[in-house]
Specification:
single chain, about 130 residues, Metal Binding Protein, Guanine Nucleotide Exchange Factor, Chain A, about 10% helix
């Protein structure tokens, strides 16, 4: 296990490999949201600044889904349907990486923290980059 606050670079992507990215992680904490979309996708949230995220390939196969306010841009691979990252409503200038899409067994390096997204408005202030 890595030290929780040491910067580490990970790579990841979708299931078929059409989408690949690199992310620099400073805080090894991921939020497990119980809202309708996150619980159905199994998304574990790692919010980073845009300059900590690099899309290596796959921009041409990404599709975007929006709903409700339209601020969040849920990105998914149009080939395999996996959601490796998105632009979150809570941090529209950042990137929210799905920890489950990091290569290898990177998930063991993260503290997984429950987040009450069903009551998003009351709890959004608890999310940090």
């Amino acid at each position: 296990m890595v030290a929780k606050n040491n910067p580490v670079v990970y790579e990841g992507g979708c299931h078929c490999g059409a989408v690949r990215f690199r992310v620099e992680v400073e805080k090894h904490k991921a939020d497990d949201c119980n809202c309708s979309i996150c619980s159905k996708k199994g998304f574990l949230h790692l919010i980073v600044k845009r300059d900590q995220f690099t899309l290596l390939k796959g921009e041409d196969v990404l599709t975007t889904y929006t709903f409700n306010t339209g601020i969040a841009q849920h990105k998914f691979c149009s080939v395999c349907g996996i959601h490796p990252f998105y632009i979150p409503r809570s941090h529209p200038d950042g990137i929210d990486v799905n920890v489950r899409c990091l290569d290898g067994n990177a998930i063991v390096n993260f503290e997984i923290v429950p987040f009450d997204g069903k009551n998003w408005e009351a709890n959004v202030s608890k999310l940090q980059e």
